[in-house]
Design brief:
Shape: globular
CATH architecture of the largest domain: 3-Layer(aba) Sandwich
Oligomer: single chain
Strand content: 5-15%
CATH class of the largest domain: Alpha Beta
Number of strands: 11
CATH superfamily of the largest domain: NAD(P)-binding Rossmann-like Domain
Distance between the termini: 55 Å
Number of helices: 12
Helix content: 40-55%
Largest sheet: 7 strands, parallel
Amino acid sequence: MRKLLVTGGAGFIGSNFVRFALAENSPVVNLDALTYAGSLENLADLPNANQHTFVHGDICNRELIEDLLEKHEIDTLVHFAAESHVDRSILGPEQFIRTNVHGTFTLLEAWKQAWIRAGKPDHWRFHHVSTDEVFGSLGPDDPPFSETTRYAPNSPYAASKAASDHLVRAYGATYGLPYTISNCSNNYGPYQFPEKLIPLVILNALEGRELPIYGDGQQIRDWLYVEDHCQAIWTILQRGAPGETYIIGGANQPSNLLVVQTLCDLLDELAPDSQFAPHAQLIRYVTDRPGHDRRYAMDITRIRQDLGWQPRETLTTGLLKTVRWFLDHQTWVESIRRQQDYQSWRARNYDQRTSASVEGG
């Protein structure tokens, strides 16, 4: 049984992983700064809650990190905490550098010292959660991203995550620190803050607001249901080789437009009394974001062959579960809607974009 420190464990993916680890009966110390995307509401009704310790704090606070590692005898650190939205990084990159680069450096320094004091145990593990965006964009006929794809980030967010990946590898090579890295595709599912495409579309559609499609909507993404992602990380912690990187994806490549149309169809079916049905009538094409990567695709061969993991959810089943979750958790939805940051961000980034023609021109 591992003793986990999870950073960013009140955020979307982090809170889902905390639930997963607690269900596996592992004690969890959960460190989160509770910025806009992290919420204690994400941690309601946890399984085995007596094994969960929440700490409100910043990953850049080295003294706090060192104290937690020693006090709780942590042997496994799972690092989710990050600024993660491309649009926010375009408008304000400084916070991304602070959290994603300096924050990761601070964690590594504290972890290194704790590991050395403990006698450099082989079973300790620093697991760094990264993104496919560090690899840049694929052309229509390019092979999917793999563990050997060269880095070519195209946004401040992607560049900051690439830098953090390099730091983790450098600490492994220089100091012998046992680590693993995973690069995942776009996550979706319960508790996702609605600045991202899927929850934004669900909530906007239910409110009768426009459903913004960047450019022509033909950007290709691989979509990973968050519970599949949690299972993959847990598998890496149990069986992954130190010093290895694993690509995690959902084994699909829909266009953004197809995802939005599918969500509209699901809402038509699951919310038949909505006054805004058919919800596809709310789709509007808006000005594309600068440097918008055209296509991502993931090659999950290594994690499938070496560790026996593969996604359980298809895009269809995962989207169905996600829409049902948002419809069934209106208390959580209302708490997010009331947040000033959510309201101001939606107005600044989406509402003020110039609508294009319905053909996406």
